[in-house]
Amino acid sequence: MPKPQINFAKYLPVEVVQKIWGLHVIDNGFSIIEPHSPYPPLSDHPQEYYFVNNAGRILHEYQIIYISDGKGNYRSESAGSYEVSGGTILLVFPDEWHTYSPDTNTGWEEYWIGFNGSYAENLMHKLFSLKRPVINIGFNSELLRMMQEVMNISETLPYGYRELLSGYTLAIISHISAGSFVENNRRFKYHDSLEKARNYIFKHANEDIDFLYLADYLNMSYSSLRTLFKRETGLALKQFQLEIRLNQAKELLRRQDLTIAEVAARLGFSSGFYFSRLFKKKEGVSPLNYLKQQKL
């Protein structure tokens, strides 16, 4: 039996004031499509966004779709058929017939953002081509972070969220448009593996990470992972994890509604004392004094 799907989708009204920017976000979302699951996933999408794989669809907006894991296929009227694997960008152009779907046996993980506007039109048609809508950018943790931030902003709707969404979308386009991005950054054969290691540590920062297991998962020796990771990031694996946890700690402390012991427990530290000692060593001030500074 197929596993349940994980989906998030947000559709935003097009406001007149947003058109001044020339690039306004219309929709964005995320789906994990498990093997042997129906596609598109069954959720609350507007009717015009649904499609049957063979019939395809035509949208009246631009879309950037990042397939971060898995594999499948993509077809469009101008470009024909492509095989798609993890680390691939799919571009959708307004009024262009297209269809895509994950491989039945593997499924995939997809992030997308839909947008439009005069500035968007100028950028997309100068930087990209209808005949080359599939770009292998590789696994990229920064691109993934920005796509996730777009969803976070859409879900929480902070003040100025439409402008923030426009800014992130422009940054995403800039990332993708750097045609030499992958080649310039693929300095050695383990580039993608190290990007996956970074993302794994981000996701599991508050857990007791088994780095031997991580190395094996990435088809690397632990010695290679440890050496190459430090060469690329300037930090050892555990130091990188600790940096993430301490940055999260500062965010939690700034909320001013949690005790130091509660912050330590939430972030997986063995005790408040141990957390405080590490925090002071890194930040030069104890969590208590840091908290007092935030209240000034």
How would you portray this structure in words?
This protein is an alpha+beta fold and 296 residues long. The protein contains 11 helices and 8 strands. It has helices at residues 118-127, 141-156, 161-177, 181-185, 191-203, 211-217, 222-233, 237-255, 260-266, 272-283, 287-295, and strands at 6-11, 24-33, 62-76, 80-85, 88-92, 98-102, 108-116, 134-136. Strands 1, 2, 3, 4, 5, 6, 7 and 8 form an 8-stranded antiparallel sheet that branches. β3 (62-76) and β4 (80-85) form a beta hairpin. The longest helix is centred in the last third of the chain and has 19 residues, at 237-255. It starts with 5 loop residues before the first strand and ends with a helix. The model is unreliable at 1-5 (pLDDT under 50).
Low-confidence stretches: 1-5
Span of the ends, CA to CA: 56 Å
Helical proportion?
40-55%
Helix-strand sequence:
EEEEEEEHEHHHHHHHHHH
Summarize the structure.
With 296 residues, the protein is α+β, with helices and mostly antiparallel strands. Helix content is 43%, strand content 20%. It has helices at residues 118-127, 141-156, 161-177, 181-185, 191-203, 211-217, 222-233, 237-255, 260-266, 272-283, 287-295; strands at residues 6-11, 24-33, 62-76, 80-85, 88-92, 98-102, 108-116, 134-136.
